[in-house]
Predict the structure of Response regulator transcription factor.
Amino acid sequence: MTEVVRVLLADDEHLIRGALAALLSLEDDLVVVAEAASGPEALAMARAHAPDVAVLDLQMPGADGVKVATSLRTELPGCQVLIVTGHGRPGHLKRALAAGVRGFVPKTVSAQRLAELIRTVHAGNRYVDPELAADAISAGDSPLTAREAEVLELAADGAPVAEIAERAALAEGTVRNYLSSAVTKLGAENRHAAVRLARERGWV
Amino acid sequence: MTEVVRVLLADDEHLIRGALAALLSLEDDLVVVAEAASGPEALAMARAHAPDVAVLDLQMPGADGVKVATSLRTELPGCQVLIVTGHGRPGHLKRALAAGVRGFVPKTVSAQRLAELIRTVHAGNRYVDPELAADAISAGDSPLTAREAEVLELAADGAPVAEIAERAALAEGTVRNYLSSAVTKLGAENRHAAVRLARERGWV
DNA sequence: TCGAGTGTCTGACATTTGTCATGCCCGGCG
DNA sequence: CGCCGGGCATGACAAATGTCAGACACTCGA
């Protein structure tokens, strides 16, 4: 095929972004048309250059890769999104797929493999790293109800119950109840351990 | 100068390591003689190839960059160490300098700049990213006493006071006292926030 | 329609945590 | 020597947290 794939590269680590751009440029059928160091910048660049494929880091300042992907989905339906992540957590994978992301891989893949994957998603196919997929499946669905998750999130930064109650417009007893319920469901020792677990599994 | 600098590259993210190797090879006076994806592997590679400069990621499986640097210091005194980090925290910087590391920079630097820094540390000079240095200085020394730090560390994973008391062979009241003291000194809301703060500043 | 099951919400009670006043020991200093 | 000052350690008390039983609304099948 003689078609050229136009790629947007977004990663806050200049070292990686530059190196990656150089390596991908070695592929005849790939051309990096834009680079970005943050979520909002990635969006702006995408609007300006309308790339075929956007390669997004999961962790970026401003808005993370999934949020950017969500916006791109509506603004540029023709642009396929491939997310790369340093230390992937299952929950993000689920969010990412829900946002219409076509590919999700850890940064442990080789540049050669990444180039292949860019072609894969450009062709309209999906690819998810098998290990990350296995993690996501073993983590399963969140056992938390909507309120439980909401309250747990508010408790994330160690705020006292009174503050959580005020922000959620609930009685303190109710907040304690939800926290207790969430802690039990997650099999955690206390609310803080529960927050950690929920974070790891992408349930908050 | 016609001398060639022999470089060891260690990073668990294959994508970055490969890309970096390619970019650094473009420099005439730099040659990547070995790559590693983990702490122990980095040590083994260093022993086998005796590089002039070791470029180590801070976060790696097995042993982190600082631990590797400590070992290298005694085994290969002629090998200078340059640490790169994704999201640098002041405490690590202090540990790194104590371990004899010559350079410490975030991954937001460009490859060009990294090449310069490899030459800098090879020449025996030091370089620390100004922003990271400022963070470390503003963080200052730990105000915690030995016992306070010990108890705070035991409290890190959300264990209840009774368990901490048992593991530290202290009365529960004493444990509460140290935690309270640590929380006050750190200006935190509660023990968990204190753990976070101490972690960020490298005090535990 | 009506009963079972589930989610939401609350207050009362037991447990855990945070704070305070206090005593002990040790090293430095007048 | 005698007397601080600081770190270590403790128990008592107040405040926050975790646990429990139960009320209400809503959905889904029988």
